[in-house]
Structures are given as C-alpha cells and as structure tokens.
Design goal:
With 482 residues, this protein is α/β, with parallel strands linked by helices. The chain has 13 helices and 17 strands. The strands form five sheets. A seven-stranded mixed sheet has the order 2-12-11-1-9-4-5, sandwiched between helices. A four-stranded antiparallel sheet has the order 14-15-16-17, with helices on one face. α2 crosses α9 and α7 runs parallel beside α9.
C-alpha cells in the first residue's frame, strides 16, 4: 500500500468569500461551512489574478500569468491559445510519479489541453473533447441590444452543466477508489464547475431561495462609473457584461437572488462529493481542497462580473484544505495565494518528489506571510497592466499610466475612498511600493523595468482605447462564459 495520500480538488468559478463565511450575508453554504470546520480554513486567501484563464493556469503550473503567457481569457480573443508544453502541470507530474489523474469540468487553459497532455481520464471538459451539454429549458431572457442581460434564468425541467459534471466527477472518483483499494495506487481527482459564474442558470427552487428587500444593493453600491478619485479605466465598461447602467433596481435584486441561489446549489453539489468521501471512508487517506478561481462584484461599486481591479469582492476567496494527518499550519492567519495551492496539496500528500525545492517551500502549512500580491495584464483582448499588494491594514494598487490606488481596509472596507494623494499616507505608499517592487523583481515580472507600457484599455491587436466593444471575429454574443 502506498504511503502517499490521494488528492481531491473541488474548484468552482466566481464564488465570493462572503457567500459562505460572512454571517451578515443572506447566502448560506452549510456544506462548505462544515468543511471549513473540519479542515483548515484560510480567511486570508487571495487569487493571483481575478480572471479565469490566468488564475487557472497559475493553479495548475504554480507560475504567474506573465510566466505562462496566460494573461487573458482564452475564449475571448485567443481561442486557439494553449499552454506551452514546457510548462508541465502538477497533474502531469503526479501522473508521471504513479498517480491516477482524473479531471472533470471547466479547464479554460486551452481547448483540449488536458487530453493533449496525456491526462488519464478527462470528462465533460473543454480540456478534452466533450464539454457536457446542458438539457434544461428556460424562458426567454430579457435582451438588451445584442446581449442578454441581466444574466440570470431558472428552469423547472432538465439538467445544467454543473449537475452533469458533478455526476461525472463522482463516477471518476468511485473508479479511482476502486483502484486505490485494489492495488494501492493513489489518485488525484479534480472536479471543476462553471458556477456560480453567470449566466446564473439554476433549478427554479434555488432562484427563490432568498427573498431580498426590494431595495437590496450592497453597502458599497453606487451608480456605475460615478465614483471620484478612481483610475480612468474604471470609469467605463470594457465588456458588455460590465455595462450595468441599464439594470433596474429589480434587475439588481433578482441578479443577487439568482447568484446566491447558485452558490447554494453549488454547495449542495459539493456536499454530495463530501458524502461520497464519507461513504468510501476516504478521509484518512485523502487531502481535500475547495476553492474558486476568483469572485464576483454583484453590484459592488455599481459593477457586475469582474474586471481590471483588485476589489475584495473579486480577489478574496473561500479557501479550505483538509489534511488527513491533521497537521496545523505555522500560521492559519497567514496570507495565502491560489498560485501555491498545488505545492501545498502535494506536500501534504507526501508526494514532494515531484516538486522543486522552491515549490516545497511554498506550502501554506509552512509559510507565514503578512501580505500577498496580485497581478492583472489583460481582459478580453485589452491591455491592463496592474499590480497590487494586500496587507491587514492597506491595499495598494500600482497602475502605470493611470491613477494608483490606496485603501485603508480597516476604515474603508468598501474601498470607496482612494487615499493615493493623501500626504498623511506617503510613508505607507512608499513601503508598500517597495514590497511590491521586490516581489516583481523576484518573479521576473517584465513590468518592473518596462520602458513602454501600452495605453490602459487599448486592444492587443492595436486598436485604441475608444474602439467600441466587439466580440472576436466569428464569435457570437453569449449569455456568459464557460
């Protein structure tokens, strides 16, 4: 019997920290809450980039977006981009070391990229050949121009993609367990869902789970693009999902209802996987993790979806890991980052031989960080060069060719008041900039010494900032992004 532990990783898309762990929030996710009580809940967990493809490439390679070249979503303007073969993912390394590796669901790091890399078993995934087609039937959506808005709908019959993927992932997991019991071969099983990313296509009973006040909006809501002392690029929409001026108060309320309902639906699916671990008696032999890739604005600052910013709503993650050996991290209150997830899981599983010395040192069980850094380079074909650092008290964002940001997270948790021009905070800004520069230097970030930075918001294909929003050639408007 192998002494190495199994790994089960449940990943979702666009889930906010407060959906599960803030008691003031109307949403309830009891399954994730119980898992947080069982495992280690990192309340200072952050994404490396609040955008799907860059974050996911970082998770599975341990490399930053500028290092992999995945600085933007592959689906928008780079549909044929795939991960460079020289960057071997942790899944490949585990498989080469004797693990059975399975993957179900959203990949978003290049079409067919998992199959091409030889992963054992890929199902219902854009990383394979069969993404998994939903069968639900819904009422026609409200349509604004060429785009469906707001991004919510419910159905009373049929099946959505996340249900299909969870069932397929559970089947894979059962097959892995059979092999584990038969010959002791450890496995790494990934179940990756699309929700609660919009469009919020959910069973009707979840759409009516939360009755919100008629005037429901977040505490830091404001009419879109009206905030003062904000970067120029945050003063307009850069993708149709961000154009929220046409949303009525009722639209915002129903959008929130459907989003929180989707979160609870995801929680029920995750609970099924936890129940399977109970049934198969796997807890003593398996490292288990839950995380999203990033969060969702849902009306904060009058915005929807995500964009080139580091607001807490999109960067702060609900993040839990179960260690069967019940070891305690050096500091549960350390800042941790999504890019260090797999070095942590592999170290806890006893498979550290697949890691470099640097990766071994990145385990969240041994690090003790007082801050974390984040990056952003592109969004739907546009340039956005942004770097940020978060400490307990402050968040600083550096924006070449645009206005920097500084927020006092204790006095202004809603990030409304930009203190970048405050004489009283000059020393704070200098200290944070030095820490950010040191991180960029250490990671070989091209932006640290860049002599030319593109105009923020300009298109990668040369079009200027004010070019109207359009899809990539041949791409039709959709209700959301998978």
């Amino acid at each position: 019997m192998s002494t190495r532990k199994n790994i089960v990783f449940f990943m979702v898309d666009q889930l906010r920290w407060d959906a599960a762990f803030d008691e003031r929030n109307p949403c309830r996710m009891p399954g994730l809450l119980r898992f947080g009580e069982k495992g280690v809940r990192f309340d200072k967990a952050y994404t490396i980039c609040p955008l799907c493809s860059p974050a996911r490439a970082a998770v599975f390679t341990g490399l930053l977006p500028h290092q992999t070249g995945f600085i933007d979503n592959v689906c928008a303007f780079w549909p044929n981009r795939t991960l460079n073969p020289e960057y071997r993912t942790y899944l490949e390394r585990l498989q080469d070391s004797g693990y059975t590796v399975t993957y179900t669901g959203k990949w978003h790091v290049g079409k067919g990229g998992l199959v091409e890399r030889g992963v054992d078993d890929v199902r219902c995934s854009d990383g394979g050949h069969t993404p998994g087609k939903p069968t639900y039937k819904t009422e026609p959506l409200k349509r604004v121009g060429e785009w469906f808005k707001p991004y919510y709908e419910a159905y009373s019959e049929g099946t959505n993609r996340d249900r299909i993927r969870t069932d397929a992932g559970k089947d894979q997991l059962r097959e892995c367990v059979a092999g584990f019991h038969e010959d002791g071969k450890p496995f790494c099983s990934v179940i990756s869902l699309s929700g609660p990313h919009f469009s919020h296509c959910i069973p009707k009973r979840y759409a009516h789970m939360y009755e919100l006040p008629q005037d429901f909006v977040p505490d830091n809501f404001c009419p879109p693009f009206t905030e003062e002392k904000k970067p120029h690029v945050l003063g307009r929409a850069h993708w149709p999902s961000q154009e929220t001026a046409d949303l009525t108060p009722e639209d915002w309320r129903k959008t929130a209802q459907h989003y929180w309902g989707y979160c609870s639906y995801i929680d029920d699916l995750f609970s099924e996987v936890l129940h399977l671990l109970d049934e198969e008696d796997l807890w003593e032999d398996t490292v288990v993790a839950f995380t999203p890739d990033h969060g969702e604005m849902l009306g904060a600052h009058g915005r929807f979806d995500k964009g080139p910013d580091f607001y807490e709503e999109t960067v702060h993650l609900p993040f839990v890991i179960w260690d069967p050996a019940r070891r305690e991290p050096v500091n549960r209150n350390s800042y941790v980052n999504l890019v260090d997830l797999y070095p942590t899981l592999i170290s806890l599983a006893g498979a550290s031989e697949v890691l470099s010395d640097d990766e071994k040192a990145r385990s969240m069980w041994t690090t003790n960080h007082g801050h974390t850094c984040m990056c952003y380079d592109g969004y739907q074909g546009r340039h956005f060069m942004v770097r940020g650092i978060r400490t307990d008290r402050y968040k600083y964002t550096w924006r070449p060719r645009d206005l920097d940001e500084l927020y006092d997270m204790q006095e202004d948790p809603g990030e409304r008041n930009n203190l970048i021009d405050s004489p009283r905070h000059e020393a704070v800004i200098l200290e944070l900039r030095k820490k950010l520069d040191a991180w960029m230097e250490r990671e070989g970030d091209y932006l640290r010494h860049a002599k030319h930075v593109p105009e923020p918001g300009s298109f990668a294909d040369g079009r200027c900032y004010d070019t109207p929003m359009v899809c990539a050639p041949g791409q039709e408007p959709t209700r959301g992004r998978d």
